[in-house]
Amino acid sequence: MTAASAFDSAGPAGDDHAAGLRRDQWRERMGLASLAAPALLLVTITMLVPVGWLFGLSFLDDNGALSLEHYRRMLAEPSYGRTFRTTFEISFVTTLICILLGYPLAYFLSQLPRRAANLCMIAVLLPFWTSLLVRTYAWLVLLQRSGLINTWGMKLGLWSEPLQLVHNMGGTLIGMVHIMLPFMVLPLYGTMRAIDRNLLRAAASLGSTPVHGFWTVFFPLSLPGLAAGASLVFVLCLGFYVTPAMLGGGKVTMVSNRIANDIELFFNWGAASALGVVLLVITLVVLVLAARLSRGAGLFGAGH
Amino acid sequence: MPRQPITPTKTALALVMGLGLSSAAPAWAQELTVVSFGGSYQEGQSKALFQPAAKALGIKIKEETYTSIADLRLKVKAGAVTWDVVASGSGSAARAGAEGILEKLDYKVIDTSNFLPGTKQDYCVGGDVFSTVLAWNTKTYGQNGPQSWADFWDVKKFPGKRSYRKSVAGALEPALMADGVPADKVYEVLSQPGGIERAIKKIRELKPHIAVWWSSGAQHAQLMKDGEVDMITGWNGRFDVAAKDGAKVAYTFNQGLLDYDCFAIAKGAPNKDLAMKFLAEISKPQYQAEFTKYITYGPTNKKAYEGGAIDAAYAKTLPSHPDNAGKQLTIDLDWYIKFEAQASSAYQNMLTE
């Protein structure tokens, strides 16, 4: 009886303790949540609501009745499929070129003393502070038929006829890579800086050549940065509008250009909304697949 | 009892009491919001039409700019119409009117008895006449460049880079004329089954020689200024402005496509009746004659050509001058209302091939 009463008295006290802990934990969570609340609210208002609204619009026809006509049109007209293919091709190639240019650059920067690296970083970031429109126009001035490059090239006798450098896929890629490169270099540089140099020294002391050490130690450790940069560049490329419109000479139609075209052409926004929805879905599928495929390789930070 | 002079306090009091005011006090004049396309075009409109007409009517004008009729659609659908008068292309206005986002115009108020035929519609009254013409680089071809659409398509006689419009408006007609269809049969052919395809097939032929597909007036003027292409289609006024800036460009009205810009009233405009009076005012010949001084777009009111308001030699350079109008084909808006969506799909398919 006494023992039981002792238990009885201990019981509620223990519960009190656990409840207190739970309460504290809950408070802490709520505190953290309230810190995130403004951002969450902003994302909800500026992202989820309009996207949901567009999603709804894409299933309505001219009279506001439920209809799949906008999706049917996309399947029936070959130009839509080609537009999506162009969009993904350009985004993929831009990402690839950014990796080829950005990785060595980030590696070089990460090996510099911090001070020198910071100085060089300013050079990388400088384009960020110039308007995208101005940079795109600048490329037009450089690359066009009577532009600087063609004028100088012909004066120096390097070529005799003006080269077609812009108003095509090539010009678009040049402009996009230039704008996207910092998005690749920044996450790569951050990851590379954080890699412990001692690991490479350890590899060397165990008899590894520098090249072998790079590929077996440094490169795998830099992959999360590469994956972050690549997905950032790829996704940003998918929504490009101004650069392909200005440097593509009308031959490079990306989804965003087509959306603008459809808003002009059709009375309702369903046609354009449907394009946006399809682009969003394909992008999500591509990203999920990429995450799945790279999980084994430890990309996206999943392996750490 | 002699009338007392109106003092500011009194008028303010009157206003507060809701008695209203005549045009005696400009500070409280009614305000009309006018929206147009900006740039040198709207600057000319402002100086020649909006400001003088506002003065004549004793009202104030607030000017805004917009990019396309889609902006107006957004305002009307959201029930937040702040614009009264909307400047528009004839084709967009026709579609916007059919869609129900413009007010019907009252031609008992607006006098169009002296207008050129086909330069007004139920929802939009013509303001100026422009032309889609064939222009060329005078550095490449000299002053006597290509004179017809057949020449535009003739890459042997006139080798060089071309530029053509990226959207379907005004793109199919030249192709059919180049294919041998007489101007007065163009829309007949385009309305028949296979007509659109015939035009597109002809453009597909020229596609390897088209270096740039232009999408705006500013762009086609810039292309000629930069000497980026040798031959181009585009709006005549823009080329004149570019030539004034030193561009090596000339154009012909031969086989050009005559079209017009117009003024409409937004559905649910805050000052609909005043806007109607304003449109009546700016449709008068003296305003239209003045506008031609800023850009080589012609008047829709034939009377503007009379009385020497426009210099005789200069008048001959305007698209709606009888000498020039006769060489051209007038855009058929009914065709666009019926076929534009279908033609645009086919055009986009050809472009992305």
Fill in the keyword field for this structure:
heterodimer, A: 304 residues, MetI-like fold, 2 domains, disordered N terminus, B: alpha/beta, D-Maltodextrin-Binding Protein, domain 2, 41% helix
Put the structure in a nutshell:
The complex is a heterodimer of chains A (304) and B (353). With 304 residues, chain A is mainly α.
Report the β-strand fraction of chain B as a percent range.
15-25%
Alpha-beta classification of chain A: mainly alpha
CATH homologous superfamily (4th level) name of the largest domain in chain B: Periplasmic binding protein-like II
Tally of contiguous helical segments of chain B: 16
> Mean pLDDT score of chain B, rounded?
90
The CATH homologous superfamily name of the largest domain in chain A equals MetI-like
Q: What summary fits the major beta sheet of chain B?
A: 10 strands, mixed
CATH class term of the largest domain in chain A: Mainly Alpha
Strand content of chain A: under 5%
Structural category of chain B is alpha/beta
What does the overall shape of chain A look like? flat
According to CATH, the fold-level topology of the largest domain in chain A is MetI-like fold
User: What's the total count of β strands of chain A?
Assistant: 0
Q: What oligomeric state best describes the polypeptide chains here?
A: heterodimer
| Strands of chain B, total number | 10
**pLDDT averaged over residues of chain A:** 88
Pfam families (chain B): SBP_bac_8 (PF13416)
Signal peptide (chain B): 1-29
InterPro entries (chain B): SBP (IPR006059)
Organism (chain B): Bosea robiniae
Task: Describe the protein's topology.
The complex is a heterodimer of chains A (304) and B (353).
Chain A: H1 2-57, H2 69-76, H3 78-111, H4 114-125, H5 132-143, H6 148-155, H7 169-194, H8 197-205, H9 210-238, H10 242-247, H11 255-265, H12 270-295
Helix pairs in contact in A: 1-12, 2-12, 3-7, 3-9, 5-7, 7-9, 8-9, 11-12
Chain B: H1 8-16, E1 31-36, H2 39-57, E2 60-65, H3 69-77, E3 85-89, H4 90-99, E4 120-121, E5 124-137, H5 138-141, H6 149-153, E6 162-165, H7 172-178, H8 186-191, H9 195-206, E7 210-214, H10 217-225, E8 231-235, H11 236-244, E9 249-265, H12 272-282, H13 285-291, H14 312-315, H15 322-325, E10 329-330, H16 333-351
Parallel strand pairs in B: 1-2, 1-3, 6-7, 6-8, 9-10
Antiparallel strand pairs in B: 3-9, 4-5, 5-8, 5-9
Domain ABC transmembrane type-1 (chain A): 84-290
Protein name (chain A): Spermidine/putrescine transport system permease protein/spermidine/putrescine transport system permease protein
Family (chain A): Belongs to the binding-protein-dependent transport system permease family. CysTW subfamily.
